[in-house]
């Protein structure tokens, strides 16, 4: 049984969610909303399904990320009705529902059938979820303005959500320590993945996303998705981007480690970590997230100059001419919650100089963001730079030496508080 304080926070969370949903439905003229948990589709031409992760609004209410074919009906002023699909089945196990106080908040039913339940007097009804599962269900399916407003209910986290995110960070850090130790012992990418899973006690399929584990040049592929089963002849670097899901909430942490004898690369890791901590310290109410991203590029430029990778260009000119974008091509981070890239981050499009930025908002208390600067040696991005007018400012010998290390990314999860911020990865709440 979790800490009683956490369970009390969960009841407060449900009360707050009830209030937020009542406001949204009133503003948009709906009497009730039916939420589908979703289900994993079957692979084409096969009888095996994909890995399942529950639909965000359903998980927001219940924390049940693995509960397929279930439904939640919300009506203002009434207890939410929760239908859980729990068939009698000798092929598969039925998920165990924890015996916790939150269950009393719902009118709870167990069902043998996966289709939507029949509703009595739903009024003007919205039905939200995977369109493939909503065919034939009465009501308005996935109305855009309502979905946008419900996404907004997830932007400012409750105390319960912050506690879950902090615990997800704590558990993931145990995995990162085990991964670093496995790297030091000469393990393969696959062996490092197993060490991470053992330490977090979470299967890869239950994790919030497929862990990114890259040795050497593989660390230069931002979402590297394969695990070599044999270690390289020489392990020069490790980049691991991996999290844990706790009660539906995700952590998303990245660490980079230099191998023995990689002094230059280790110095770059140290420099990037110092920059990353300065960027984390910028997180506060009223701060533009886009400006944090832009300060990250100026910091990358300073690191490139200090390391000797770039010479004869000011930090501002490196940014203006696209030099830093070749080394740091992605955004500084994103919202975090029950989805790794949580919703409602881009009410306006990202600026032209940051096309991949996933968050364009001004920060407010309750938001949780990632801060993840990177510095990579990606041939397809650096070669055009080397062939162009800026190529004469780059130290090609040093680049060639570092290319086999792939790249660096350091990522923490940071909560915006009324008085500033709290780094959930480096200290919790």
Automatic annotation (TrEMBL):
Its cofactor is Mn(2+). Its EC number is 3.4.13.9. It is an enzyme of class 3 (hydrolase). This is Xaa-Pro dipeptidase. It catalyses: Xaa-L-Pro dipeptide + H2O = an L-alpha-amino acid + L-proline. GO terms for biological process: proteolysis. Transmembrane segments: none annotated. It comes from the Bacteria. Keywords: Dipeptidase, Hydrolase, Manganese, Metal-binding, Metalloprotease, Protease.
């Amino acid at each position: 049984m979790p800490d009683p304080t956490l369970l009390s926070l969960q009841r407060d969370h449900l009360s707050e969610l009830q209030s937020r949903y009542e406001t949204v439905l009133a503003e948009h003229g709906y009497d009730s909303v039916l939420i589908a948990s979703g289900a994993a589709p079957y692979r084409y031409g096969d009888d095996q399904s994909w890995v399942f992760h529950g639909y965000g609004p359903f998980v927001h209410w219940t924390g049940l990320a693995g509960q397929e074919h279930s439904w939640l009906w919300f009506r203002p002023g009434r207890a939410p009705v929760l239908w859980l699909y729990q068939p009698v089945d000798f092929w598969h196990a039925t998920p165990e529902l924890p015996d916790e106080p939150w269950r009393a908040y719902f009118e709870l039913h167990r069902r043998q059938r996966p289709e939507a339940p029949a509703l009595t007097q739903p009024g003007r009804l919205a039905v939200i979820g995977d369109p493939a599962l909503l065919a034939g269900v009465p009501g308005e399916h996935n109305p855009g303005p309502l979905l946008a407003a419900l996404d907004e209910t997830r932007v400012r986290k409750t105390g319960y959500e912050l506690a879950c995110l902090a615990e997800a960070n704590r558990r993931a850090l145990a995995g990162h320590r085990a991964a670093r130790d496995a790297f030091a012992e000469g393990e393969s990418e696959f062996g490092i993945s197993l060490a991470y899973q053992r330490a977090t006690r979470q299967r890869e399929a239950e994790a919030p996303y497929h862990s990114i584990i890259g040795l050497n040049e593989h660390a230069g592929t931002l979402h590297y998705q394969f695990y070599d089963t044999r270690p390289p002849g020489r392990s020069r670097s490790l980049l691991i981007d991996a999290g844990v899901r706790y009660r539906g909430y995700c952590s998303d942490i990245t660490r980079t480690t230099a191998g023995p004898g990689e002094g230059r690369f280790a110095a770059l890791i140290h420099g990037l970590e110092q920059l990353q901590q300065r960027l984390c310290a910028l997180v506060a109410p009223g701060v533009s997230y886009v400006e944090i991203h832009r300060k990250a590029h100026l910091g990358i430029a300073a690191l490139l100059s200090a390391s000797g990778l770039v010479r004869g260009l000011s930090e501002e000119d490196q940014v203006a001419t696209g030099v830093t974008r070749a080394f740091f091509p992605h955004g500084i981070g994103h919202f975090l919650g029950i989805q790794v890239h949580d919703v409602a981050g881009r009410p306006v499009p990202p600026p032209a100089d940051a096309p991949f930025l996933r968050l364009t908002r001004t920060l407010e208390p309750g938001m949780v963001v990632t801060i993840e600067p990177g510095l990579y040696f990606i041939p397809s991005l650096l070669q055009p730079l080397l062939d162009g007018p800026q190529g004469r400012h780059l130290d090609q010998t040093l680049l060639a030496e570092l290319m086999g290390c792939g790249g660096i990314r350091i990522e923490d999860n940071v909560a915006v508080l009324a008085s500033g911020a709290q780094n959930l990865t480096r200290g919790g709440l």
